[in-house]
Design goal:
372 residues; alpha/beta; Enolase-like, domain 1; 13 helices; globular
Amino acid sequence: MGDPGSSAVLTALLAASRPFRVRLREPVRGVTHREGLLIAGPHGVGEFAPFTDHPPAHQARWLVAAISAAHVPWPAAPQPQVRANALIPANNPGLAAEIVRTTGCSVVKVKIPRHPDAAFTATLTATTAALAERPVPAAAQPALLRLDANGQWTVAEAVSALADVRRLLAARSGGCAVEYVEQPCATLAECIEVRHRAQIAVAVDESIRLGDSGVPDLGAGGRLPARSDEVDVIVCKPMVAGGIAATLDLARQAQAIGVAVVVSGSLDTSVGLALVTRVASLLPGRAAGIGTGALLAADLTDTPLLPVAGSVPSAIPPLSRDRLAAADPGPAAATAWTQRLTAAWWAGADRATAAVHDQIRSQQQVPAPWST
């Protein structure tokens, strides 16, 4: 498949990769582990860890992001710390309260199931109670909730569920407000309708990033909003957009029409979070979705990127040889990830990274950080 030159680059890329698998403390949308491949290059290490239900054309963007992280210089971080939002799984009140307390985040994203039940209500209650108990100076920051439905609702379901959440919040003291609901429905048109019918701020994520043709040609009914009165926020995920440059380009398009941008990770290890945090430092404003390290039961570094007092450092933590060894998923998983990377390469990543092909081939002469 493909031309011999691209095949040689792919061989070099695989030679500079290493598989990993780390457990989550709590499943998130059915995901219990984060796994993928690390890719070494002269400018660092990239993380290729697309969710396996994404087709190769989408996974190709993740691969472009990983290759770019390893083979393209990173812009300097203009700020040493980046304000973060914490992420709360849908149905674990104890973990929700712990995450709010330990991260110090004033902005919290809560995953909301299609049919909110008693377990979700308990989780939301625990979250708001912990936010109300924040110590000074954290309490000086307004407590904001981001509700993430991952496109599960119909318009009618969204309007009903959001009304229920508002009633629940109104019945409790603590001053928590809903900043926005993220991707209430699958399509942008439905999200716009929810915004007007529920009178709530709306952020879009999946309806933009899961287009068939990449950014900015979004395909599959997805498109950038045409006006700022359609949506309030666009969630920009560097891993699924194709890296730093692609994310900054998408952010510029959003800002040009007056739509706010929130940079967010994708349940990455600290390797991937380093790249996401770097992008977030370049796009200051609202809290970034970079507090997900608190959900990892293990990481690939001894200095993981975790929120402290509500912020994450814009740093590149060194890999730990011991933690890499502990995260080895075994030969079967390594083979599966080699196959995924290969499919993503031929699905478009080869063409998108042509500028660094010579560099990737020469990387065969430079040992990866885990082989020294």
